[in-house]
Amino acid sequence: MKKPVRVALTGAAGNIGYATLFRIAAGEMLGKDQPVILQLLELPVEKAQAALRGVALELEDCAFPLLAGMVLTDDPKVAFKDASWCLLVGSKPRLPGMERADLLKDNGKIFVGQGKAIDEVAADDARVVVVGNPCNTNCMIAAQQARRLPKSRFTAMVRLDQNRAVSQLAAKAGVPITEIADLYIYGNHSPSMFADFTHATIGGKPVTEVITDKAWLETEFLPKIGKRGAAVLEARGQSSAASAGNAMMDHVRALSTPGAIHSVAVESDGSYGFAKGIWAGVPVRTTEPGSYEVITSYAMTDFAKSKLELTNAELVSERETVQELLG
Ligand code: NAX
How far apart are CA 313 and CA 324, in angstroms? Predict the structure, then answer.
């Protein structure tokens, strides 16, 4: 039996936590032969802690052979202690009447504290995945706290956008999901992101040869992916949870699989015109488990460049809003 891997998850009593923890404990994220210890963080209020205890009771009741232990806590330093994967899901939802800038600053503060705690106590091989929104900027904030861990260990999730885009292209072309390849997400996890259909393929052919309706690709497909979260929220009355948790597990699995090429928001080195130092979605190739290199070789059309500029401008503006948290 392998040594258990410690997986920390914040916001563990929330919707994404509930949609994900049972799958992680069943071995769907790190492998069917990999025991895990779940280290679950929730807010220090009784309602959240009680809900967390309830989730833990249910996890126990599943008798998962791979679940080697659980830690329930309201202390980030306990949650992240020796964790190899730190999944940062918990954050405040945007409330009616709340300005986006206030949400950025409020949630940003959470990620200052959690980034610091991770850097102090997580395992030497710790990898951080930020899901809590606005996830790119929250990830940048957490990474600024890193002294011991390299900033490249901090990634934000744009995988849900990739999965949404793959699914929509397959539906439009009337082909199985497996026929879609090389579809990557650039920029922010927000309606401004760019799902690059210009380099993607369907059954080995360029998307633009199979779906010849350029207007659909540019003016229907892209907004549909960008606003998919809002569509789910409107239909369900709650934001995407199972699909977000599923994407988080895809993100971790792809980062654990050498050779995998996938969309991840990482610190920009200036590639694709993104401002240096922001966290922007780009295609990466996993080199060894937990490490990656950015694929910089895609040449962009003028249309694609105009989209990249827009999403870059939004990320730069988010960085300006949270400047005081980056010191
Ligand atoms: P929920 O509101 O159901 O759960 C969030 C949980 O986090 C709550 O239980 C809350 O008590 C806890 N929490 C809040 N602040 C915390 C803190 N400082 N430390 C520990 N726990 C804390 O939200 P859920 O549906 O689970 O979504 C969580 C986050 O994911 C939200 O920020 C949401 O916007 C974001 N999403 C990100 C997506 C992405 O693709 N990157 C897609 C789905 C989702 O919208």
Answer: 19
